[in-house]
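Help needed: design a sequence for this.
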């Protein structure tokens, strides 16, 4: 019988130890916070279990993977609250920072409850207060801190094609400013095409578009590892054309020409490990607002022909996006 009682006590102790030093509920949102990892971090800072009346609630942001709110409850009352905006970039550091904050909040709460009672003074007759209302409103829920804008830098290699068969390659670089589900992009794009024939002449030519690109994107989905975005972009720049073909080199005019195009961009990205970098791929159908073409004169034969580039095409991009942090976060680190 004594063996059964001892076994029961050991089982209850093991269950209490497995629950951690304090009851914790985690609502991760889009952050990387996990209850098991947080409890493991708490065990390094809190060596004894606190009263069952205390429990901690951690709510991650629904939009920002580096923002969270911690509330310490004593029964139905909120006795302490703290927010991270932004928190540490690395997931392990984020768990450690939240665990340290919970341990400090519990220590402050213990000091307040263990303080000596105030010295009783002689009673003073006061008027009898009115009866309290029968219904007492519960304390307001913790408010999620406002999410600041975030900056990121993107660079990508480009591979394009046109309906007429022209192939293109190049690069694109842009800055992006993100706030919740919206993103604003601004950058530059450069391409160079493969050689294309000029009509039925032996001459050939290549194109070299260079322009500025601006756009507006909407986040279709976002998590700690994946993100997807749909954007609409406008491109304005110039296209230089150059004749090729030995003695059959052609002179093309006008050259350069104004380049104006629009594109729809579907992007899917995945976070690289525990870093602030995303590997992304995008597909962008494009339309040339101004049709590109030139009059070609073949030097060797004197023949003339019309070179047309076509309006419809598509560009595939593969690149890296680096999250540069929140707007104003650099200043907050020095405070």
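Sure. Designed sequence:
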């Amino acid at each position: 019988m004594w063996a059964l009682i001892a076994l029961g006590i050991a089982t209850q102790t093991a269950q209490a130890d497995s629950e951690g030093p304090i009851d914790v509920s985690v609502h991760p949102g889009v952050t990387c916070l996990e209850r098991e990892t947080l409890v493991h971090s708490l065990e390094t800072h809190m060596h004894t279990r606190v009263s069952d009346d205390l429990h901690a609630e951690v709510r991650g942001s629904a939009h920002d993977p580096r923002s969270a709110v911690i509330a310490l409850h004593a029964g139905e009352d909120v006795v302490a609250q703290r927010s991270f905006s932004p928190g540490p970039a690395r997931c392990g550091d984020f768990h450690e920072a939240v665990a340290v904050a919970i341990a400090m909040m519990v220590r402050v709460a213990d000091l307040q409850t263990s303080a000596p009672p105030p010295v009783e003074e002689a009673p003073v007759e006061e008027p009898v207060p009115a009866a309290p209302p029968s219904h007492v409103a519960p304390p307001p829920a913790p408010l999620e801190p406002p999410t600041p804008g975030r900056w990121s830098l993107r660079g990508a290699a480009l591979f394009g094609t046109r309906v007429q068969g022209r192939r293109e390659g190049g690069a694109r670089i842009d800055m992006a400013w993100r706030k919740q589900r919206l993103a604003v992009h601004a950058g530059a794009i450069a391409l160079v095409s493969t050689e294309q024939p000029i009509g039925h002449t032996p001459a050939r030519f290549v194109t070299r578009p260079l322009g500025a690109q601006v756009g507006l994107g909407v986040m279709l989905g976002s998590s700690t590892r994946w993100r997807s975005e749909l954007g609409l972009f406008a491109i304005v720049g110039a296209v230089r054309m150059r004749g090729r073909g030995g003695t059959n080199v052609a002179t093309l005019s006008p050259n350069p020409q104004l380049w104006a195009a629009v594109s729809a961009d579907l992007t899917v990205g995945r976070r690289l490990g525990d870093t602030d970098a995303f590997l992304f791929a995008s597909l962008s159908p494009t339309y040339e607002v101004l049709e590109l073409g030139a009059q070609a004169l073949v030097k060797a034969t004197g023949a003339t022909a019309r070179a047309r580039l076509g309006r419809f095409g598509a560009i595939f991009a593969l690149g890296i996006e680096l999250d540069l942090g929140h707007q104003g976060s650099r200043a907050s680190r020095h405070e």
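Residues 1-18, 328-335 have pLDDT under 50 and may be disordered.
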